[in-house]
Amino acid sequence: xRERVLRARERQRTRYxxxxxxxxxxxxxxxxxxNASAPTRLVAPAARLEPAARALLVRAxxxxxxxxxxxxxxxRVARTIADLDDLExxxxxxxGEALRFRPVEDAQVSTxxxxxx
Length: 117
Hints:
This protein has seven helices and no strands. By secondary structure, it is an all-alpha fold.
């Protein structure tokens, strides 16, 4: 697992390397930007969602009434899961897993399960 995490962090560092100097300060770390620390405007293009993944995320955002912040949080987590799988493209499996990590109220649990299946 440690090796997967190290590879994923290296992938993220490489992805955002061209912006690290521009983002010096609050978002930059010694080891570079990660999906979690990168500005939203950089994460969305870097996500590279498959069409089915994008459709799932949009459907989930609608059914679960996700705020813009929640939408982008799911996108960041899905991108990180894809990085752990050593994939350049985020699939619907990654989006589904990211949605399952969201804290949801009891009333939303059945809706979330329906959206992901």
